[in-house]
Amino acid sequence: MTGPRLRDGLAPYRSAQPEARIRLNSNESPYPPPPEFFERLADAVADLEPNRYPDGANRELTAALAERHGADVLVGAGSNEMIFALLLAYAGPGRRVGIFEPTYTMYSLIAQMIGSDLVTQQRDARFEISDISGMVAEAPDVVVLCSPNNPTGNADSSGRAAELAEALPNSLVVVDEAYREFSAVPQASPRPANLVSVRTFSKAWSMAAFRIGYALGDREVLDGAASVLLPYHVTTLSQQAAVIALDYEEEMRSRVARILEERERLERQMAQLEITVYRSDANFILFRPEDAKSVWQELVNRGVLVRDCTEWPGVPGCLRVTVGTQDENSEFLATLGEVIKHRGAAPERQRSK
Description:
Layout: E1 22-23, H1 35-47, H2 59-69, E2 72-76, H3 79-90, E3 96-101, H4 106-113, E4 117-122, H5 133-138, E5 142-146, H6 160-167, E6 172-176, E7 195-200, E8 213-217, H7 219-226, H8 236-245, H9 249-270, E9 276-277, E10 284-288, H10 292-301, E11 304-305, E12 307-308, E13 319-322, H11 326-352
Parallel strand pairs: 1-11, 3-4, 3-5, 5-6, 6-7
Antiparallel strand pairs: 2-8, 7-8, 9-10, 10-13, 12-13
């Protein structure tokens, strides 16, 4: 074959998106921002100059976030872009990225994209990071830790991120806190200079469509990440939407409270079925039914889409469900119960023939 040659080892991020009446597969918020948000956003759109580039420094949003968190800030087009920039700036070809499996698959994909070698350490049977000595001995250039962890749902309750930052002073520790607002686990303070937290507006803030993320950390470290970002990477509309959203934090907290109530109901009722359910500090729940691949397909056949994690490292035979609205969750529970009951009855029918 003639023509351009693609680099070896590249693979796109994939997520099955079949048609479904109820979509509980992407960890989005089931609730939109309040009506007042849209009224103010409409006014902002009316004043928008589409012939002008966005503010390349994201100044208004950066200042608002810095005031809210009391920290230096770097804004990007979603938290994935922030993680990509941090890894590209501080890892890259000939360097190494460390992760704790199972975890978010984008970290290993980004490491492949930028030509970094991957260092992996397994979490324990409860998906906790019970020991960091192996990672410390490897001393990768960047360690990425997700808390609460996707797809397992558990937060870093033992303070491993801060321990890693202290034990690896010449490495960068990146903590992906996309689901931070759903967790009661306190954040370590103060933040070491070699530790960066990454946040998003896509989950608790109900703004996945706008693709806004940001990093909190040492100014010099963030400036290093900024050096690999493309210019004008956050649209004017997204910047303005995020600034407006910050005025509705109370409404955000109310949405989160509703999601946590529903998460508890899901955990409680799922535990009554013949499946393994893992405790969650996020807006989703990992569970392991018998023959998970078939259960996933049967749920899809009935119009309910959850995430198929059966081929992800460290979580074989597992599925993941996003906490939806009360009605969505009730239908998921009823459909899952029906599928499991049907599958349990199938051998009996087979024997009776």
